[in-house]
Amino acid sequence: GAVVSQHPSWVICKSGTSVKIECRSLDFQATTMFWYRQFPKQSLMLMATSNEGSKATYEQGVEKDKFLINHASLTLSTLTVTSAHPEDSSFYICSARGVSGSGETQYFGPGTRLLVL
Amino acid sequence: RKEVEQDPGPFNVPEGATVAFNCTYSNSASQSFFWYRQDCRKEPKLLMSVYSSGNEDGRFTAQLNRASQYISLLIRDSKLSDSATYLCAVKRAGANNLFFGTGTRLTVIP
What we know:
The complex is a heterodimer of chains A (117) and B (110).
Chain A: E1 4-7, E2 10-13, E3 19-25, E4 32-38, E5 45-51, E6 57-58, E7 67-73, E8 76-81, E9 90-100, E10 103-108, E11 112-116
Parallel strand pairs in A: 2-11
Antiparallel strand pairs in A: 1-3, 3-8, 4-5, 4-9, 5-6, 7-8, 9-10, 9-11
Chain B: E1 4-6, E2 11-14, E3 19-25, E4 30-38, E5 44-50, E6 55-57, E7 60-65, E8 70-75, E9 84-92, E10 98-100, E11 104-109
Parallel strand pairs in B: 2-11
Antiparallel strand pairs in B: 1-3, 3-8, 4-5, 4-9, 6-7, 7-8, 9-10, 9-11
């Protein structure tokens, strides 16, 4: 089946550091990728939708200058958390839209745990 | 009102029990419906899509009620390995993304 990878799987960094997370669709082309954030015991919250070759669409309340998204190819999207602060500590999950035998489905990457000290 | 609402639980059931979760959605233009399973500290994984006529996959049965705007998931003969958080997800017609519920935590007890 379709596979989405994320790297790194976890990051611990100092406040003020920028952190880059990569999301790759491994065996399909993803024209659309999504970035979610999940705080403990809370639901997945969509941060932004990324389309290949165009600017990302951010959800209300998500700062586009803080969370930089680049979707340079059909298999790679990156999320950069600029000048990370402790409140940015969360589980970041990317998701890619693809087509399988069951039709169009959204596949999730394994997530990246970010801890900002 | 939230796009998708779920009872967060937790549901604690003995092995072998039957358990059902409901999820309501607010937008009548919603078009596609899914159940995902999320294990602790892991990403959600697609459990099953929900079709208008209802569908079954082994011990799991999903149903859609458009009139009342809810979807349900029934798990029969619960196994210890079914312990997880179950998230419903809804996609609107013409929209790109899925809206997720907060998830319902299930613990199957030996």
